[in-house]
Each structure stands twice: as structure tokens, then as C-alpha cells.
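User: Fold this one for me? It's 4-hydroxybenzoyl-CoA thioesterase family active site.
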Amino acid sequence: MEKVLKTKKKIRFQDCDPFNHLNNAKYLEYFINTREDQIAEHYNLDIFKYLRETGISWVVATNQISYMRPAFTMETVLIDSQLVQYSDNFLLVEMKMWNENETELKAILWIKFFHYNIQSTKRASHSDDLMKLFQSVVVPVEQSIFENRCLEIVQKLKSGVPA
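Assistant: Here's what I get for 4-hydroxybenzoyl-CoA thioesterase family active site.
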């Protein structure tokens, strides 16, 4: 099972500012929509079906994003995502947006999700099956502070090491 999921997307005109750069808020939409598609395709996990069947889903607790380079109107970008940390009731996903050839980093995002019961309006524990899935795909990172992780990625790129 793939651990780092990759998808190409085209930056659309309506999502850009007057400078033809992807609007800062739109980065989050591109990231979250891509992650939803990736986990459905690669892990057979449709979060909307899961919500209908269980009454439980994931809600965004925090977003931490660093904008490195602009993404331009009609540019094809590559978005990768990976689970970097999990517990019985939360997930931490790292996502990166690159140019199409993965040679220029555009943005880095950490998004923390809580597993949430819609009926009780409280956090919910992940099932054993979900925990097994997470264990099989997690790619832990050494850094626990977002800014330090960004610096680590930039330093790796400057030294020619894949991030």
C-alpha cells in the first residue's frame, strides 16, 4: 500500500488573485480536496460514505501552512500527502504542493483532524480496522514542530536530498 500519495492538479483561473497566483485560502481547498480523492482511490476510504454509515467523520482541528513559491493560473501542480502521526482519535497529515516535475516546492501544510461523532458532538476513537490502516501507511517525521519541519524540508532540498 502506498504511503505517500501523489496527484496532479491544474490551478484554475477562478482560484487566483490579480497577480495570477493561487489565492492563499484556495491552497487549503486544493489540499483537502486532493486528500479526499487520494484516500478514496488508494485506501478505499470514502469519508462521506463512512460518515453516513457510522455517524463519525473527521473534522479539521488545525491547519499550519507555509507558502514557499506561488502557484500560477493554469499551472499543473503535484500534490503529495502522507500520514505523519496518529492516535486513537486524531490524525496529522503532511501535504506538499510542487511544480509538475517536483523540482520547486510551492507550499507545505500540516493538517490535524479529530475523529468526531456527529451525534454526541464529541471526539470518537478510531476502529481497530482504521488503526491497522494508519499503522500500515504512517510515515513518521522526526520534527514535531511545523516550522522546524519546514526548515528540515528546505535544507534537504538545498542539499539535493528528496524531501
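One thing worth pointing out: The domain at 5-158 is CATH 3.10.129.10 (Thiol Ester Dehydrase; Chain A).
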